[in-house]
Amino acid sequence: MEVRSEGLQVRCEKVASGTPPVIARTRVQVWFIRVCSSILLWTALVQLVTVGELWQPHFFTNITNKITQITPFPIAAQVHAQPPPPPLLQARNYTSNGYLKVSCNGGLNQMRAAICDMVAVARLLNLTLVVPELDKTSFWADPSNFEDIFNVKHFIDSLRDEVRIVRRVPKRFNRKSGYKVLEMPPVSWSDEKYYLEQILPLFVKSKVLHFNKTDTRFANNRISLNLQKLRCRVNFQALKFTPQIETLGNKLVRILQERGPFVALHLRYEMDMLAFSGCTHACTKDEAEELKTLRYAYPWWREKEIVSEERRLQGLCPLTPEETALVLQALGFDNETQIYIAAGEIYGSERRLAALRAAFPHIVRKEMLLDPVELQQFQNHSSQMAALDFMVSIASNTFIPTYDGNMAKVVEGHRRYLGFKKTILLDRKRLVELLDLHQNGTLPWNEFAFAVQAAHEKRMGQPIRRRVIADKPKEEDYFYANPQECLCERTNCDDLLGPNNSSSIQ
Which InterPro entries does the protein's record reference (predicted)? Predict the structure, then answer.
């Protein structure tokens, strides 16, 4: 830019020097000199625009704004085409007690909840959190890293006023440097006292601590309000999916919404769930044996010998596709209902989906709505595929899970946060009783349908207090399914929940 200006100036000087030494110049000569001067002036102004965008002091910003309004040059317009990013939050100033590394275990939503817990633990103990590692050894064997699923920059920046988050520990704390990191799983369902008294002192000896398991390691209840709200903030705001996932997820939602209202059915009739739970109702003998073999293949699935029918009668099995079809009809959904199946491969494939598809012909999956090329980047990445189903489930008019696993619970809580969107929480124990009575001819259809609807009148995702069971945290309601501390920003919690909705058990 400077070379061109100097050349232009030289040419103008040559023209000027060639002018006859007369007092009165011709109009052409005056016009020519003015053109040269104007070009030099615009060149300098354009350079000023560039400098102003690089430095961004107030003086240059004001000038460049004025130039943009008057200059006809395309370069100036391009400079202001993109809006400036939002200002970063003020970073929290604290002395870090050490680095917390975490390896999340389980599927996408189990890991999601664990990440929220670990941010809260890091905040409680004044630690520096290392971007979490995701499970690559589970049933799904998904090789995805954190940054393949979540927007890591947004995650770090959006929480900087609470917790310092880094992508990796300093080199001096690396194993390659000979530093031995202390590894351990924290005790499940632990409260703040445990972390302050048992975990924090460990950082005095070891500046880096690695939690190699993170599922359900933080209590549901009796946690300070600021930490409960921080868990919600991480879950609902900081954990954004990558632009690639969000773009495709939004496209799926748009396609479905253009066709009308839709139900997201989390049909958890998948091989891993059936093997883990030992549920083989309506399976063939060979399928039951295959599921048992798989259960024994994973040593961390502790229960091995399981009586399927006993578990089913206790309401501990996911509904079969055939049972689900009858329940949906009894709840009042007709054959025009658009149903999106938010799940992986259904065990038994289309053979097991036949009854459900016959009752509800407008069943779709992401593979049916998107071009295979669009899904190609997500193939063999179950957590990324689950992220697409998660987005559709959040946006659906009605969400119905057939099993209360991690995705069902996290989606339920997210929909409560978004205004208590309709979520039908199936009472499987009651449904199994009704289904067996109906299918053996004891209970007519009209009575069956009435009983199903009555059983779920207060299971539609409406406001309700989270259940507390003293000394039995595993039996309490899950925080992420009903984060009640985060649902009362604009109203009084007592008015919202009401005394009749209390489900505390002491």
Answer: FucosylTrfase_pln, GDP-Fuc_O-FucTrfase
Better-scored residue on pLDDT, 437 or 68:
437
Do residues 118 and 106 lie in contact, with contact meaning Cβ atoms separated by under 8 Å?
A: no
C-alpha 111/C-alpha 410 separation (Å) is 11
Quick one: which of 462, 351, 366, 477 has its CA closest to 415?
462
Return the pLDDT at 202.
96
Question: In the chain, how many domains are there?
Answer: 2
Residue 73: pLDDT band with limits 50, 70, 90? very low
Instruction: Say how far apart CA 462 and CA 420 lie, in whole Å.
Output: 6
Give yes or no for a contact between 211 and 103, defined as CB atoms under 8 angstroms apart.
yes
Question: Which of 22-31, 84-93, 233-242, 413-422 is the least confident region?
Answer: 22-31
Which domain, by its residues, includes 428? 243-486
| Cα angle 112, 116, 122; round to 5 | 140
Report the alpha-carbon angle 111-117-119, nearest 5: 105
Residues 218 and 305 in one domain: no
Q: Where are the beta strands (DSSP E) in 326-407?
A: 338-341, 363-364, 398-401
* Degrees to nearest 5, angle at CA 52 with 46 and 53: 95
Q: What is the per-residue pLDDT across 38-50, written as a single tens digit (0 to 9) for each?
A: 666 666 655 554 4
User: Is residue 99 a contact partner of residue 108, using CB atoms and an 8 Å limit?
Assistant: no
Q: How many residues are present in the chain?
A: 506
154 — pLDDT class (breaks 50, 70, 90): very high
Residue 228 domain flag: yes
Q: How many helices and strands (H and E) does the chain possess?
A: 23, 9
- Distances, alpha carbon 258 to alpha carbons 37, 153, 253, 255, 341, in Å: 59, 33, 9, 5, 17
Q: Tens of pLDDT along 373-417?
A: 999 999 889 999 999 999 999 999 999 999 999 999 999 999 999
**Of 76-80, 184-188, 214-218, 380-384, where does mean pLDDT reach its minimum?**
76-80
| Together in a domain, 140 and 284 | no
In this structure, what token pair is assigned to residue 381? 């990445």
Question: Are 205 and 218 found together in one domain?
Answer: yes
Query: Could you tell me if 161 and 304 lie in one domain?
Result: no
Kindly report the average pLDDT of the chain as a whole number: 85
In 91-207 the beta strands, taken as DSSP E runs, fall at: 99-102, 128-130, 164-166, 182-184
Cβ–Cβ under 8 Å, residues 217 and 186: yes
Domain co-membership, 258 together with 383: yes
Q: What is the pLDDT of residue 149?
A: 97
Residues 6+ apart with CB under 8 A from 63: 48, 52
Question: Which residue in 400, 440, 482 sits closest to 220, CA to CA?
Answer: 482
Give the span between the Cα atoms of 357 and 354, in whole angstroms: 5
Q: What H or E segment, with its residue span, contains residue 6?
A: helix 2-17
